[in-house]
Design a protein that fits this description.
Number of domains of chain B: 1
Radius of gyration of chain A: 22 Å
GO biological process, one term (chains B, D): iron-sulfur cluster assembly
Helix content of chain B: 40-55%
Protein name (chains A, C): cysteine desulfurase
Order of helices and strands of chain B: HHEEEHHH
CATH architecture of the largest domain in chain A: 3-Layer(aba) Sandwich
Structural class of chain B: alpha+beta
Largest sheet of chain A: 7 strands, mixed
InterPro entries (chains B, D): NIF_FeS_clus_asmbl_NifU_N
Number of strands of chain B: 3
Strand content of chain B: 15-25%
Shape of chain A: globular
CATH class of chain B: Alpha Beta
Pfam families (chains B, D): NifU_N
Number of domains of chain A: 2
Helix content of chain A: 25-40%
Bound molecules: pyridoxal-5'-phosphate
Strand content of chain A: 15-25%
Shape of chain B: globular
CATH architecture of chain B: Alpha-Beta Complex
Number of strands of chain A: 17
Distance between the termini of chain A: 49 Å
Radius of gyration of chain B: 15 Å
Largest interface: A-C, 95 and 97 residues
GO molecular function, one term (chains B, D): iron ion binding
Structural class of chain A: alpha/beta
Oligomer: heterotetramer
């Protein structure tokens, strides 16, 4: 049975923030979910329920409350694991995708790393990476002597695979790239790249920040080794991210953050470490946030990930045709198939000014380099205006966006 | 009330009078393992000797709570003299009892005194205590077999 | 005007979880706040208010919601800074004290660190450190060739300063120690040690996890360079910690986690970094948790930190005399002046079994090595039973603890 | 409504017809600085020359939004030919206007066209845009003085 189409007007009522108004009574049109999503009531309730009924230090106490807290936390891990088709012992809770990627970059460059670096070894990234999947590798390259290489981006905003055979080779030790671009909406060919990288023995890391929230993901089918995403972009709380990894790989990786609850035996001089996932979760964990994330996952699952993907594609397609109908508006990125991030330029008006006019109409978009500065340079611009869509956005929201851009053109007198 | 359910007489007896809690000399290819419970620091040292597929000797020493001590004592009593296969079966059965949340089945009856630990399964934090000695045995057996295979 | 004594019976009503019962209807007596504290309603409300009204990516958007989120997040920083007598640009939000200490240990051992390590350089710790303030330094020592040294602990549970002059010397580059022991309740002479370490040019790091929640702290008066603590132990949410540092020191430290929002200019090859605190806050931050922590700080301030300290000292003193009156019970740690962590041993009964009997009575304590395994060895024990007190604990709670220990003695037949 | 308050005519005029937006040659000890707004990537290159305590020349080039461009234009117009001290005073005054949340005082009147930016102070995310050129000037002056002091 195909999932029913989702009804955003109805879903919207689950999100208290979307009822508020901005700029003197204007309806809020929230088109910035790519930066962070809004939260349904069930997520806030789940967090609160944890604090009001089960809060204690997981894994550390022998009393009833500690048992219940542990159960809640480990239960959340199972829910998240199931959501991506993984085993729960492969799911590490971090504070964010940013921490997850840093964890990987530090662990895989430490002295005990399963990868022993030889100067000249390569890490392959793409030109469309978010700073979170770029700077940790720059820092890692400084420590190891590794060389960063980049898969270029075509004018259409796709990965340019023409010379991929010269980019992936014997020296490639790690390939790390984004599943979906947070700027262009491009969806990259994960399996193809992963297989290619595996053929030379490289470890494949996927930044799934912009895919896991928006489509059904089966981590086994993707064929990658490590995958990261953030809770706050998928209806979950701030302060929680995920690192998924093949268990045997995780097991071979040394810890990153060290401290309590990730140890086996500790003396003053040295320590031995637990198996994953605990090895990577030092300290009292972000229990309430993990529980909130599990509630978000359950909400998403109930709505249906395929229905969400279809809904977003519908909205972004309408937005593209609406914007392209305006003279002097240029879309960056592919026409489709694509994710829901939509970047555009308005001739003669700086994105900051476009965003300001939209904001004045209650339309919240993001302007700037979107933490992908090198990609901006690739397209010869300093910034773009970006709208991102989610399950609670409606066609009215798309109309408000287009109307706002028209108003900006009138206001700055740039419409031909 | 709950307390009595958890600390059955059998458990307290084994705790006060542990079986085989005296390490046999390490000769004739006996294997020694040392296991620690990382949450509480409890430790067990276990020596096992397997000859011709029979666990001829299981002795141990250790520091720990009533549950870990009693459970190790029960384990030592049940497995010494048993076949290797039966010892592994018992270990699997005990593990499944510990994951049962207190519901026992007929199959658990092979565990004899070990059945008394059903109540412990209701306390997740104590399950690790009950498993300490059993996991040490499992480890010892797999090392022993590893050596045999080499 | 002296602060009025606090009334725990009344305060308790602010904590929803403390109304619940455990083990078949028993009143919950929560004596495990040293592991994690319970949360007052105002903290949960503040987090929820953030999500329902101001949630957006701080520092990243130009729309009204993003402005309000930024204001909420930066406002939280100011509240936390004021609470410890600091300037807000010296306050870094992390996910936990564990992350804070790792941040320091990694940053100060990276290639651009203001400390340039020469093998044989020393890091001085104490024998009473939590694993969170031990293992990160062990790992750091592996990377740098530094040597760890330890200030010993006396039988009374105090730092043994007899040979301190031989422990702190020219080779000492870092002194890192806990303000209050999470096991023994010992309060260490911070200023004395900090001054001594400064006289040889060492950087002084304070683990204030067990002091900031329980007493008034003025970080300038303490005279340390860096200080860490966790939100969840001071009525705040899980998933938020703090690193405070002297601004000039923070400014000289390279970043630890890298990614979005901590940069100045980014190219494919390299990046330059923002000033602190942003330099150390890569990614979309734990905004809701910071806001919740600020609400916790406001609640603590309204109750009065001196009143809280006095109340806890009162409870722990009564608990000590009650326990000491039982035959065969031995207290670890100093009689006083002391913090509220109270570890004890009961002859002939393992701490796990003591804890189990207490739990059966609804009394939640912690048993085990309390993430301070080397300290356990110092005292020749594998574990202790530990009760910790906070502002919501009452004399009834103390009585329940003592009655529970007596019951354990009867149950195991160990009472003489 | 709010929009008009923020984008005052004066601002739009400066945006469309920026003053001194053409870098003067770098000679006679003029100083060049390059500033970037890390949130949006806007950039300004500024050249300033100070002779005998007078800012004799302020020219610039840059890429950015209406606010950053207009504000840099106003800054260049106000400070070129002013004394070093007066330029610093103006900078401080503009900074305080930006922190005013839109409330102007009499003292702000020295800012002349700069007063038009009072509305921008209501939008925290745009304050950085308005400050870009001014902060570049401040930096240039302090480097210039640094060099003089050496
Ligand atoms: C003294 C001390 N230091 C550090 C920590 C680590 O804190 P967290 O687990 O919140 O990172 C704790 C608490 O567990 C502690 O008591
Ligand atoms: C593609 C991509 N990667 C990584 C991140 C970093 O996520 P976070 O800031 O939650 O760590 C983001 C979001 O900002 C993103 O869009």
């Amino acid at each position: 049975m195909p999932e029913p189409k989702l009804n955003a007007e109805i879903l919207k009522k689950d999100f208290p923030l979307l009822e508020r108004t901005v700029r003197g009574g204007k309806r809020l049109v929230y088109l910035d979910s790519g930066a962070t999503s809004q939260k349904p009531r069930v997520v806030l309730d789940a967090e609160r329920d944890f604090y009001e009924n089960r809060n204690a230090a997981a894994h550390r106490g022998a009393h009833q409350l500690a048992e219940e807290a542990t159960e809640a936390f480990e239960g959340a891990r199972e829910v998240v694991a199931r959501f991506i088709g993984a085993n729960s012992r492969e799911v590490v809770f971090t504070k964010s995708a940013t921490e997850s990627i840093n964890l990987v970059a530090y662990s895989l460059s430490s002295a005990d790393s399963p990868i022993q670096w030889i100067p000249g070894d390569e890490v392959l990234l793409t030109e469309m990476e978010h700073h979170a999947n770029l700077i940790p590798w720059q820092e890692m390259a400084k420590r190891t002597g590794a060389i960063l290489r980049f898969i270029p981006v075509t004018d259409e905003g796709l990965l340019d695979l023409t010379n991929i055979d010269t980019l992936i080779g014997e020296r490639t030790r790690i390939l790390s790239f984004t599943h979906a671009s947070n700027v262009l909406g491009t969806t990259n060919p994960v399996r193809f790249l992963a297989d290619l990288a595996h053929s030379v023995g490289a470890v494949v890391v996927l930044d799934a920040c912009q895919s896991v929230p928006h489509e059904a993901i089966d981590v086994v089918a993707l064929g990658v080794d490590l995958m990261t995403f953030s809770g706050h972009k998928m209806l979950g709380p701030t302060g929680v991210g995920v690192l998924w990894g093949r268990f045997d790989l995780l097991e071979s990786m040394p810890p990153f953050l060290t401290g309590g609850s990730m140890i086996e035996i500790v003396t003053l001089e040295s320590a031995t470490y637990s198996l994953p996932p605990k090895r990577f979760e030092a300290g009292v964990p972000n229990m309430a946030q993990a529980v909130g994330l599990a509630a978000a996952v359950n909400y998403l699952t109930a709505v249906g990930m395929d229905a969400i993907a279809e809904h977003e594609l519908d909205l972004v397609t309408k937005a593209i045709s609406g914007l392209e109908a305006l003279p002097g508006v240029r879309i960056l990125g592919p026409a489709g198939p694509r994710g829901g991030a939509l970047s555009f330029l308005v001739d003669g008006i700086h994105p900051h000014d476009v965003g300001q006019v939209l904001d004045d109409d209650g339309v919240a978009v993001r302007v700037g380099h979107h933490c992908a500065w090198p990609l901006m340079r690739r397209f010869g611009v300093a910034a773009t205006t970006r709208a991102t869509f989610y399950l609670y956005n409606t066609e009215d929201d798309v109309r408000a966006l287009i109307a706002g851009v028209e108003r900006a053109q009138k206001f700055f007198g740039s419409a031909p | 009330m709950n307390l009595e359910k958890m600390y059955q007489e059998i458990i307290l007896d084994h705790y006060k009078h542990p079986q085989q809690k005296k390490l046999a000399p390490l000769d004739n290819g006996a294997v020694e393992v040392h296991h620690v419970n990382p949450t509480c620091g409890d430790e067990v040292t276990l020596r096992a000797q397997v000859i011709d597929g029979v666990v001829v000797s299981v002795t141990w020493d250790g520091l720990g709570c009533s549950i870990s001590q009693a459970s190790t004592s029960v384990m030592a009593g049940l497995t010494q003299g048993a076949t290797l296969q039966h010892s592994l079966d018992l270990t699997a059965q005990f593990l499944s009892l510990m994951q049962s949340k207190g519901v026992t089945t007929e199959a658990d009856e092979v565990l004899e005194d070990g059945l008394a630990f059903a109540g412990v399964a209701l306390y997740p934090a104590r399950v690790k205590c009950a498993l300490l000695g059993w996991m040490a045995l499992k480890d010892a057996i797999s090392r022993e077999s590893g050596e045999l295979n080499e």
